[in-house]
Design brief:
Layout (H helix, E strand, L loop, with lengths): L1 E7 L7 E2 L2 E3 L2 E7 L2 H13 L6 E6 H11 L2 E5 L36 H14 L1
Parallel strand pairs: 4-6
Antiparallel strand pairs: 1-2, 1-5, 3-4
């Protein structure tokens, strides 16, 4: 299922995903609606959070990321009102002042070729 998440410094070496901390745990919000994700991003910006980018992703990829990083996730249904927390993390895991563009690595990827081909086909389908 396609969902929308919020990224900071998208497509840079310094990319970070928006999470909400609850009880010492990080939770990623996956929005079913791009409009709802955009609305949430604007609410974050209004609260002086760094400006996030709304990105479409496959929910399975986000769920796998959450399992690997020991994060939780929540699917925000279409039309549900999600309100950002009032407080920002004092020190994010990524540097807000120094977004460096990603550089292509010359070594082989850790991702199997068939998985890369699958991702490439999905991305081409978005065009």
């Amino acid at each position: 299922m396609r969902v929308y998440i919020l990224l900071f410094n998208a497509r840079t070496e310094n990319e970070g995903i928006h999470t909400i901390q609850m009880g010492g745990r990080n939770k990623i919000l996956m929005f079913e609606s791009e409009d709802d994700a955009t609305r949430f991003a604007l609410l974050l910006e209004a609260q002086d959070f760094p400006v996030p980018t709304v990105e479409a992703m496959d929910s399975g990829d986000i769920e796998a990321f959450c399992r690997a990083e020991d994060y939780e996730y929540e699917i925000v249904g279409d039309g549900m009102l999600a309100i950002p927390p009032e407080n920002n993390v004092p020190e994010p895991d990524w540097d807000t002042a120094n977004p460096k563009p990603m550089e292509a690595e010359e070594n082989e990827s850790d991702i199997p070729q068939n998985e890369l081909d699958s991702i490439r086909r999905r991305l081409e389908g978005l065009l």
